[in-house]
Amino acid sequence: MDRFIEDKVTKVSVNLEGEEKKLDFNDLKTGGFIKQRQKDLFTVRLRCPGGRITTDKLIEISKIAHKYSKESVVHLSFRQSLEILYVDYKDFSAIVEELSKIGVKVASCGPRVRVPTACGGCEYNPNGLVDTQKMAKMVDEKYFGTPTHHKFKTSFSGCPIDCARTNEMDLGFQGVVDPEWEEPTCTGCTICAEACKEDAIESHPDTGKPIYYRDKCIFCGDCIRACPTGAWRAKRYGHLVRIGGKHGRHPVNGKEVAIFLPDEKVPEVIEKTIEWYLANGIRGERIATTIKRVGIESYFRFMEPVFGEYSLADKEKV
Amino acid sequence: MSEIKAKESLDLRGVLCPMNFVKTKLKLESMEPGEVLEILLDSGEPIQNVPKSIKDEGHKIVEVNREDDYFRLKIEKC
What we know:
CATH topology of the largest domain in chain A: Sulfite Reductase Hemoprotein, domain 1
CATH class of the largest domain in chain A: Alpha Beta
Shape of chain A: globular
Oligomer: heterodimer
Distance between the termini of chain A: 55 Å
Mean pLDDT of chain B: 93
Number of helices of chain A: 9
Low-confidence stretches of chain B: none
Low-confidence stretches of chain A: 1-10
Mean pLDDT of chain A: 91
Strand content of chain A: 15-25%
Structural class of chain B: alpha+beta
Distance between the termini of chain B: 24 Å
CATH topology of chain B: Translation Initiation Factor IF3
Strand order of the largest sheet of chain A: 7-8-9-12-13
Largest interface: A-B, 14 and 16 residues
């Protein structure tokens, strides 16, 4: 029993920021210092929104990691952060100071808004429909660390392939594009019907022109990108918003609550969602459980002024 | 039915992604702007992907004809 846990002491005196302080190991977790099995050793989790680090910073981080990791290793976490393993707690103030000199902050754990994750997005990925990196940076700057009832994870995917797994987030945003077709420029070449992987476009047997089944469309934009003449065009870009997803012991799929939500509405959606969660949730409960207990209708009602025309409360709007 | 005259042609049936696109790109690089390349592409993955990539590179697909289980595309080099 507990044979791997060598150190059961939870409070210790340590020199932090020049003064002697009592340090609670449980409190440390809020700051992104995670206790390891090994006595006195911790994992230091760095804040890397969207999983992006400049090469300049990476060089400096590796020097610091090399200096403080007793086993000379870092770990790439599942949420895109760099974790420096095997750091002695006595080195905390020194490592934090060295990291802050190069503009790198320590991330968090516990019941609060976590560092957002994101794919490459439209900046360089040909499938990307929204600028996920820009959004992740914004969320990290504005909302990181906001206290909530339990952990609150957000992510941004650039397209319906959903590499950032928005379906498993407390609040996830996935890029979508609304396709629009104009007959005059269409030559009936049938490429769009071939390019569509969802069978949402069929070619008319005589003219070759598209017959569009919107109920099957997942708004990936393949038709727009494949169309040789520009007859398929982007009417609007935005986010498909998913709420209440989680992985872990009891995975839950997120619920789709809004679509084609523009970038500028994202901050308001995050703020109001947290407000609803704080008002309706209870301590230690993920938003997925709150929704299950209180009902999604309550959330939709609360969000109506924010979601407006983008709300999926009434699915007919798609 | 085809009116646009192609200067070069490539039969890419049986060539897998992304090699079919790479071959198209290399051929286009050897040509002059405004010249037309004709390619034959399988349906399925090749026709789903190659036209997108050609457009991304700035070239213009000027004609598309469906044959049995493949496509005949004419591309104007940008």
